[in-house]
Write a structure and sequence with these properties.
Distance between the termini: 14 Å
Keywords: Glycosyltransferase, Transferase
Structural class: alpha/beta
Pfam families: Glyco_transf_N, UDPGT
Number of strands: 13
Enzyme class: transferase
Family: Belongs to the UDP-glycosyltransferase family.
Radius of gyration: 22 Å
Protein name: Glycosyltransferase
Low-confidence stretches: none
Helix content: 40-55%
Shape: globular
């Protein structure tokens, strides 16, 4: 009898990418596949410090961790404002190590694992495809952004050809794009943040474009989305990449599996910070749909002025708020105005990190002020929680436009965080326009749940992915 396939999963070493790719790894292990998860040393140490990850994955005898250097010193912040440094370090340092690891996994069986069948690598590390092709190993790339964002990346050459890029200043920010099908409802300010440059040699711009075009060389593409959510973008992507697997929301697959088998272990946290669970008891004491939850994710860095504008807006809204302020996420120190401390004492609760999926599922939470990271957006959609979006960088500008203009499940507040605007948007979300947002949000939540059910599109696509990996195994 043939051994089960062995898949190497290799994420880009930041929180959001680790998050969803670990969930994919667990789903593959649930189906009996062997999985080696290749982490950076830095990420792995953080996981061991902040989670029970090894204990959780011990229930899967076919799962193994391996580690590799990301090329940066331990004290590098690895935040969104310096992510290009991380990208260049990975390309310079990790690529030769990756070849050595692949060679070992391809030709022998460490710890009883079968030889390698295929690789599922992060789509912004295209060097994985080149190395794998040399060793004749099939590679499927995983883009951890929305389908709409990936389509926008893929269309940048057409936007350049049509003269809609490069960026020509503030006067063009609200002009609707007209040259590319599938982007008609997007403005210049809604394109990925890397497009906001007048210099086509800008390193961030060049990295994103070159990596996206390299994705076309892989044996397939994985996206953490579902058909009913991004049908238009997906249809356009398929004209370039027919072998497309939409398998999201990945966390919803695991949640559905847990609900159907209560004896299973709870899903494990993959957080790089210790979760402060005291916020759950605080939420328990709050009325239904009364709390605005605030988190700007794992990579956003706020200025002191931005911090205080958000803070004044939250306090002035009069709503209870739960605010995640990640360690080292604010670029300045100093005294805090007395009115903010008093307003927080009365109505607010602040933590360094929170169990976000549980928070969004809590009945007291009525809205989410978010950076519009794709994981956060999907988690909010799955719980039917309307959003106020303040995107920081990368794909987040696209996602906030989807939330506010396309799906109508919240408000897009990009490029401003004045206290009066923050206050007004919270009141609109939680009171004035609540009914219309809730109606749309609940409908999207229903579609998300349907997608991971037995005959749902994402469930079927996950089956198709596993069938294709099995075929690769037979073809070895």
């Amino acid at each position: 009898m043939a051994q089960k396939p062995h898949v190497l999963i290799f994420p880009f070493p930041v929180q959001g990418h680790i998050n969803c790719m670990l969930k994919l790894a667990e789903l593959l292990c649930c189906r009996g596949l062997h999985v080696t998860f290749l982490n950076s040393h830095h990420i792995h140490e953080r996981l061991l410090c902040c989670t029970d990850i090894h204990y959780h994955f011990s229930q899967y005898p076919t799962f193994h961790f391996e580690t590799i250097s990301d090329g940066l010193p331990a004290d590098h912040p690895r935040t969104g404002d310096r992510v290009v440094e991380l990208f260049h370090a990975v390309n310079a340092t990790t690529k030769p190590q990756f070849r050595d690891i692949l060679t070992g996994l391809q030709f022998h069986s460490p710890n009883g694992r079968p030889a390698l069948t295929c690789i599922i690598a992060d789509g912004i590390m295209s060097f994985t495809v080149d190395v794998a092709k040399e060793l004749h190993i099939p590679t499927i790339l995983f883009r951890t952004v929305s389908a709409s964002c990936f389509w926008a990346f893929l269309c940048v050459p057409k936007l350049l050809e049509a003269g809609e890029l490069p960026f020509n200043g503030e006067n063009d920010m609200d002009k609707l794009l007209s040259s590319v099908p599938g982007l008609e409802r997007f403005r210049m300010r809604d394109l990925p943040s890397f497009c906001r440059t007048s210099n086509l040699a800008d390193p961030g711009f060049q990295v994103v474009i070159s990596e996206t075009l390299q994705n076309l060389k892989a044996d397939g593409l994985l996206l953490n989305t579902f058909e009913d959510l991004e049908e238009s973008a997906l249809s356009h992507i398929r004209t370039h990449i027919p072998k497309l697997y939409t398998v999201g929301p990945l966390h919803a697959h695991l949640k559905a599996r847990e609900a159907s088998s209560p004896a299973l272990q709870q899903p494990s946290s993959s957080s790089l910070w210790k979760e402060d669970r005291s916020c759950m008891a605080w939420l328990d004491r709050k009325p239904l749909n009364s709390v605005i939850y605030v988190s700007f994710g794992s990579m956003t860095v706020l200025t002191r002025n931005q911090l205080f504008e958000f803070w004044h807006g939250l306090v002035n809204s009069g709503k209870p708020f739960l605010w995640v302020i990640r360690p080292k996420s604010v670029n300045a120190d100093g005294d805090i105005p007395a009115e903010l401390l008093e307003g927080t004492r009365k109505r607010g609760y602040m933590v360094g990190w929170a169990p976000q999926q549980e928070v969004l599922a809590h009945p007291a939470v009525g809205g989410f002020l978010t950076h519009s990271g794709w994981n956060s957006t999907l988690e909010s959609i799955c719980e039917g929680v309307p959003m106020i979006c303040w995107p920081f960088y990368a794909d987040q500008q696209v996602n906030s436009r989807l939330v506010g203009e396309v799906w109508k499940v919240g408000l897009d507040m990009k490029d401003t965080c004045e206290r009066a605007t923050v206050e007004k948007m919270i009141k609109d979300l939680m009171d004035v326009k609540r009914d219309e947002f809730i109606l749309c949000a609940k409908e999207k939540a229903k579609l998300a749940r349907k997608s991971v059910e037995q005959a749902g599109s994402s469930h079927c696509n996950l089956d198709r992915l596993i069938d294709d990996i099995n075929m690769m195994n037979f073809a070895k």
